[in-house]
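Subgroup meeting minutes
Present: P.N., E.W., G.H.
Scribe: E.W.

1. P.N. recapped why we're keeping a running log of single-chain structure predictions: easier to compare across weeks, and new members can see raw inputs and outputs side by side.
2. G.H. added today's entry (154 aa).
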Amino acid sequence: MSGYIMDMRRLVGHRTLIHCAASIICVNERGELLLGRRTDNHKWGYSGGAVEIDEKVEDCARRELLEEMGITAEELEFFYVNSGPETHYVYPNGDEVSNVEIVYICRNYHGEIRRQVEEIEEIRYFGIDEIDLEDISPPIRPVFREYFKRYRDI
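Output recorded in log:
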């Protein structure tokens, strides 16, 4: 959890926070998506997290990818802004958020893939047709629906 979010949680407890986040969907040369299974809800998702005060969203997305999956993003392509009622989420610990998430796609990255043990149980690539929305973390399902709309059957 980011420093800013931890500070806010000390003030408001579990009440709903507007949660500004940045994320990256890494896509390999075969069109597969790199996903990690979260330790909190045991659902799959891409790398991402809370933007710190005065941090550029692109820098946040890159930082989260490096922290969570051990890889460095090169070029980022803006993909989607994930927000609205469907992104409202209550974490297993009771913390409640209304997400505003800026999502990028990255096809050019490097480094050795390794998981951040505290946040990710396992990491693997998925073909687009292998992804079941029921296995995806609930607040990011709209992103996957948009991804399927744009890239499935291309």
